[in-house]
Description:
Helices cover 40% and strands 20% of the residues. With 630 residues, it is α+β, with helices and mostly antiparallel strands. It has three domains: 6-226, Heat Shock Protein 90; 233-375, Ribosomal Protein S5, domain 2, CATH 3.30.230.80; 506-630, Heat shock protein 90, C-terminal domain (Four Helix Bundle (Hemerythrin (Met), subunit A), Up-down Bundle). α2 crosses α6 (192-203), α12 crosses α17 and α22 packs across α23. The mean pLDDT is 89.
Amino acid sequence: MSETTTETRSFEAEVSQVLHLVTHALYSHKEVFLRELISNASDACDKLRFEALAHPELTADDAELGIEISWDSEARTLTVRDNGIGMSRDEVIENIGTIARSGTRKFLQSLSGDTGKDSQLIGQFGVGFYSSFVVADRVVLETRRAGAEASQGVRWASDASAEYSIEDIEQATRGTAIILHLKEGEDEFLDAWKLRELVRKYSEHIGFPIRMAKWVEGKPTDELETVNQALALWAQPKNEIKDEEYKNFYKTLTHDFNDPLVWAHNRVEGKQSYTTLLYVPEKPPFDAMFNGRDERKGLKLYIRRVFIMDASEQLLPPYLRFVRGVVDSDDLPLNVSREILQDNRLVSQIRAGCVKRILDLLSKLAKNEVERYQTFYASFGNVLKEGVVDAADQRERIAGLLRFGSTKNEGPEATVSLDDYIERMQTGQDAIYYLTAESWAAARHSAQIEALTARGIEVLLMSERIDEWMMGYLSEYQGKSFRHAGKGELNLSLDDAEKERREAVEKAAAGLVEKLKKELGEKVADVRVSHRLTDSPACVVLETHDMALHTRRLMAEAGHAMPPSKAALEINPEHALLKRYDSEQDATRASDLALLLLEQAQVAEGAQLDDPAEFVKRINRVLLEGGASA
Ligand code: ADP
Ligand code: MG
């Protein structure tokens, strides 16, 4: 053990940035600092309790884990102390002086500079320890790792500048004390009733006792009393828990400023017994936004009240990664490891239980609270869609939760479910028609759905990037198959008169079709008379399994090499533009018109033109000549 050393060190650049931001942006949510400090103290107790399972000597001298809040009105300090795991010198430097969390850099990059927006983000992110600096201009942390010697205590101090000091101290007991030197004007946090109110609000159901000085006849005494229930909320009977308590527990659990959208609290008894308390947030919390499918947090695994680890990955499929909450198992062994969790029968049953609860919860919300369901869907609908791809066994259930734009609605905001669609399908209609496009408007105005709309057939309008990928996995719903309105045959049922008319039109246009085929040659897979169009001159149509043109463009832009693809050009021979082409005598002009016919159809589908400059030249030539020939 070295001599006592006081050392001044610099924060990582990111830490200084976070400190600065936090102190400014969090001003209107000051009191969260207490929640954060208590939550850290509680985490520290959780960690020690877990370590003590294998090393009982760690808590032998002082087995009752807890948190103490005290203050000194003279010195204007507020102290939050725990007898949890504590930290070594290296751990203090690592945990408090640097930003260990992987998302932080991305978080900083995502800030807008607009304080209002940023403070919302900071709330979703959960600023943790640094929120102390919202109310304190100097923060001292004194700590000793459980199991370490009294001489191995550490004192860390910072006044929110670019540097902090760290020194070795004598510390009689294990655990951590955070001493806040309050800023001018923050005296409310020296008030016993204010502090009790805050503890009750945020930390009532922290699983450890929080103690404060007992008051007798209007004065604090040296005796301590427990001010929270210190009972795990999820272990209480449902009918004894108020909504407010569920909400506050959610905030403590997630660091989110907002209330949760919905939650489900269930106790399963049987071959295996466990409790789940699962929340769906209103907005995507920070981790869900930036962390990938496999790097996530949010569902805590407890075994008989002992916190084991964050096990979101093991207990939830990726498409439900927005869910937050607690799972408490009666039956898993306490020494369970990540590897065991990965491949355990009990765990997979719990996981299946969680999936069912969440899907039930969402179905109920969709049915009973349409507007709140829309809030959910706007935040997480695209994540949920991954389930259609990933979870074959839940495909039908998830499909029932999806919402899409529709030709029966005025704008992109109004959506329909597949059940709505099926309910109003026309007699004889055998498929669910849909169209994928770059935006709602591009889909709504696409030439490809003209005939369907004219016949009063509803078309689902899909404009999220994930939609086309997802639809590749969704071939039917409630026994009805899906048909992309811009691919393959439409298979509309026709009566005899319609069939006759169609044949007549095709026959009459045979020459025109041949001429166009010759003109466009290799550029198209085919030229044919369209049964999709009513108003537009032409549209491009893909093979059933081809990737939509707008998706191809996005993929190409993202750097993926795309194999060449050719669409068929479908024409409307009765359109004036085709009549003009048919009667055009000038070879150059005819060629311009043919190419423009194809190119405008491609542009409408969001495709990338092979040669945009040539396209513009052609348009200009036609525009100028148009004046002359008219
Ligand atoms: P988070 O709690 O999300 O990890 P914080 O900023 O709140 O982020 O805390 C940073 C880290 O500092 C914690 O992960 C923990 O390692 C350490 N820490 C903070 N407070 C305590 C404490 N009371 N006891 C032990 N370690 C602590
Ligand atoms: Mg924390």
